[in-house]
Amino acid sequence: MHNRETVIKLVQKAFEHEPRINIHRYPIKVGFADSAVILEGEVGHPAAKKLALESAGAVDGVRGVIDRLRVIPGERKGDGAIRDSLCSLLMQQSEFRNCALRARVKGNSETLRDVSTDWGGEIEVAVADGVIVLEGHVLSLSHKRAAGVLAWWTPGCRDVLNSLEVRPPEEDNDSEVVDALRLVLEMDPLVHADQIRGSCRNYVVTLDGTARTDEERRRAEFDAWCLFAVDRVVNRIAVRG
Fold first, then answer.
1. 3-state helix, strand and coil shares in percent for the chain, rounded to the nearest 5
2. Regarding the domain delimited by 174-239, which CATH topology (the fold level of the hierarchy) does it fall under?
3. Residues 43/49, Cβ–Cβ less than 8 Å
4. In whole angstroms, what is the distance from residue 146 CA to residue 25 CA?
């Protein structure tokens, strides 16, 4: 088994080989204790966060990864503003119209929307230091993933902890990821979903089709990276203005 210094050097070397992580611009502090790598710092994109976790976990001698990475938001916001923005997004989306919505404010749960039946689920939103926590339950894996993407869309968000349960439970697979991707792209006002196709194999999403601008192409990829359990995204979208 490698010693602490060797493991840390191997992890840092793995980061060097992944340009999306870009450790020269976004340095990551690497620690190692009890066979677990500890990652701390701010990265530029959810993709960089996922790739850093994957790269560290693949290093020989690593049995676990402790994630303390945060994503640098496009704009800094207070926790209350982040919470209110996400709750507004959830209220506006028709996919969550039958879902009760609550906000955790100063340790207390405040009801923002109640529903007469339980079948649509219940979401509670909490925010601490820019990290959004989603708790409660929803009726499908697509709804769980869509709620997580809405959280990532929220201005000021630095990370998302998606603890939503699915009731009744569903078995996850690549088809479920594709269903959620289609839903999220249709929800995104910055993307023409009818021009983009998505496929998934072993939780690696491939995007095909056309976009009108580079920004739309990047936005579709961002949405895919933000999906719960997606490990990698291959963007083959062509830009045709």
1. 35, 30, 35
2. Histidine-containing Protein; Chain: A; (3.30.1340)
3. yes
4. 30
The residue count for the chain: 241
> For residues 220, 222, 226 and 227, what is the CA-based torsion angle, rounded to 10 degrees?
20
- Topology of domain 4-71 in CATH is Histidine-containing Protein; Chain: A; (3.30.1340)
Residues whose CB falls within 8 Å of the CB of residue 67, separated by 6 or more in sequence, listed in order: 39, 49, 53
The SS3 of residue 130 is: coil
Q: State the residue for tokens 């976009």.
A: 211
Span 55-106, pLDDT tens digits: 999 999 899 999 999 999 999 999 999 999 999 999 999 999 999 999 999 9
Q: How far apart are CA 168 and CA 149, in angstroms?
A: 21
Locate CATH 3.30.1340.30 in the chain.
4-71
Q: What's the farthest any 2 CA atoms get from each other in the chain?
A: 58
Q: What is the pTM of this model?
A: 0.94
Q: pLDDT at position 120, please?
A: 83
Both tokens assigned to 21? 């992580």
Which residue do the tokens 């869309």 mark? 153
Residue 15's alpha-carbon distances to 20, 69, 96, 231, in angstroms, are: 9, 14, 38, 16
For 228, residues 6+ apart whose C-beta sits below 8 A from its C-beta are: 144, 145, 148, 162, 180
